[in-house]
Amino acid sequence: MKTLSKTIQATFAALLCTLTLTAQASTATPTATPAATQADQAVIERGRYLAVASDCIACHTTPRGKPMAGGTSIASPVGAIVATNITPSKQFGIGNYTETQFADALRKGVRADGAHLYPAMPYTAYSVMTDADIHALYLYFMKAVQPVDQATAETSLPFPMNIRLSMKGWNALFLNDKPLAPVADRNEQWLRGRYLAEGPAHCSTCHTPRGFLMQEKLDLQLSGAQVGPWYAPNITPHKTSGIGSWSQAELVTYLKTGRVEGKAQAAGSMAEAITHSFSHLTDDDLQAIAVYILDRPAIADDKSEVQRTRFDQGKAGNALAAFRGLPAGATTDEEVRGARIFSASCASCHGYNGQGTKDGYYPSLYKNSATAGVNPSNLIATILYGVERETKDGGHVFMPPFGNQPNALNSLSNDDVAALSNYVLKYYGNPSVKVTHDDVEVIRQGGPQSNLLLLARIGMVVAGVLVLALLVWLRTRKKRPVRINENDWK
Ligand code: HEC
Ligand code: HEC
Ligand code: HEC
């Protein structure tokens, strides 16, 4: 209750703040040149490794753009936030950042000009990074990243989210910028795993559910969250809801290759994180992350508590019937439609009865986290957006998208995707999950929208009314003595 009222107070203060103060000027004001330190190659290399572990490139580089030159729009529930140019370009990038300013951007979410960053930049995770690591990253960015003189689009969020100062209130509530506390009864490996998972590798940014102000709910850490159209599942070591049935070696394999046969494979943002970041980590670091993750508190998922794990559900469909394009005993038009689409668009790779290929390159659709979980987002998103992943040895994992190309021959409508998903769920996956036309539309639009904007606007209205009342009160209070004086003089 106390924290709630504190939350409300601080939120209110933040909103009030945003009302009375205008947005800070966003022109960069260079203050100092980077210290000309002896560029120690070993430190730079460490910085390079940390940049990979932190996946800076995932957000700060467009698919065909120059490394770190920015320009990617990060979808957030209140609108798109553009990742900026963080090459050492003095005019367009961070070439004028001092090491302190760089540290503040990474750990406190404050830009060199003092303006606040939106938490689309994962400073809430990077906040645990040590001074030594920040130093290495800084040297790497200043000395080894090619400057790119190229501006990125401005972020323009709807009112009141366009007022960056509101993030000050948010940070006061939700940013823990203290270093990780020592833990007596854990070994070096666990501590290293914690540092990587909580900091640079920021697992929690995607896998932890968020509260109504978009803050991570710390008591539900890693228990699963929607990230745009994809669902980052529960990865706590809970036996049935989480990945408690995975061995440490399997988790390492997944982070390294994006696939654990007969369990799961990575698409969406996890595929990106593996392609650019996790697959390049040392085995020691991956083992450390796995040790730490599998030692987190196990959190049950309400809906799946009584079920078997999502890695052990479903079975091969009725081969002969599916081969003809019609499941045995198909009852509804929707099911027939789903079967036909499966036969035409999916069976060529995933097999006529969903069994996949022996080498696992085309995965089986049963005993698969994407079809057997309680949340169908990843099944729908896979159908709409496909899968694309690079492996470290130069391999390319690819499933074509079936939904996001309006004029493509293989484009499926929302009703098609719903029928197909329900067919896959019923015959191979979790038959208790159902997908509707509207569910598909939500994923097509980039995932469920948060009501944060609405809340903020309501907050602003309430704050506005109160400020008005305050002004009126101040005016009348000021006026009264004036009138008395006037009367006195008469
Ligand atoms: C999940 C996406 C994401 C990742 C990962 C990420 N950033 Fe960012 N970063 C952003 C976004 C978005 C912004 C712009 C935010 C804004 O305008 O409020 C930003 C802004 C910044 C800025 C402020 C630059 C300026 O003056 O505008 C710096 C510095 C920065 N990032 C450095 C880094 C570094 C270094 C890493 C890796 C250690 C990193 N970022 C990883 C999304 C990301
Ligand atoms: C940028 C967002 C993002 C980050 C960061 C991220 N994940 Fe994921 N993760 C996802 C998404 C989305 C999926 C679902 C992928 C799919 O099934 O296609 C996923 C899937 C997984 C799975 C498979 C679970 C299952 O049931 O299929 C594991 C294990 C996992 N992540 C572990 C981690 C660990 C450990 C970290 C940190 C080292 C991490 N992830 C960081 C988004 C993320
Ligand atoms: C051209 C071959 C191909 C076709 C056609 C194809 N897929 Fe895939 N599918 C793949 C590959 C490759 C993967 C990724 C395997 C990996 O990540 O290791 C995949 C992965 C998946 C996954 C798991 C995704 C995840 O997030 O874990 C699902 C579910 C899936 N496909 C369903 C379908 C459905 C339904 C269709 C029919 C619309 C279909 N696929 C058509 C090749 C294909």
* Strand elements, count: 8
Tally of helical runs: 19
- Tell me, rounded to a whole number, the average pLDDT: 84
Largest sheet: 2 strands, antiparallel
Q: Uncertain runs with pLDDT below 50, 5 residues or more?
A: 1-36, 481-490
Small molecules bound: heme C
Specify Rg, calculated over alpha carbons. 26 Å
Strand content: 5-15%
End-to-end Cα distance: 56 Å
Task: Please tell me the total number of domains.
Answer: 3
Structural class: mainly alpha
Helix content: 40-55%
User: What's the shape?
Assistant: globular
Instruction: Give the strand order of the largest sheet, numbering strands 1, 2, ... along the chain.
Output: 1-2
- The H/E string reads HHHEEHHHHHHEEHEEHHHHHHEEHHH
Question: How is this structure best described in words?
Answer:
With 490 residues, the chain is mainly alpha-helical. The protein folds into 3 domains: 2-174, no CATH class; 188-304, Orthogonal Bundle (Cytochrome Bc1 Complex, Chain D, domain 2); 319-444, Cytochrome c-like domain (Cytochrome Bc1 Complex, Chain D, domain 2). Helix content is 44%, strand content 5%. It is built from 19 helices and 8 strands. It has helices at residues 2-20, 41-53, 56-60, 99-108, 123-126, 131-144, 166-174, 188-198, 203-207, 248-257, 268-276, 283-293, 319-323, 333-350, 369-372, 377-385, 414-427, 437-444, 452-489; strands spanning 73-76, 79-82, 225-227, 230-232, 259-260, 264-265, 387-390, 396-399. The strands form 4 sheets. It has a two-stranded antiparallel sheet. The chain has a two-stranded antiparallel ribbon with strand order 3-4. A two-stranded antiparallel ribbon has the order 5-6. The termini are far apart. The structure holds heme C (3 copies). Residues 197, 201-203, 205-207, 227, 230, 232-233, 235, 243, 251, 254, 264, 266-270, 273, 289, 293, 369-370, 378 line the site of one heme C.
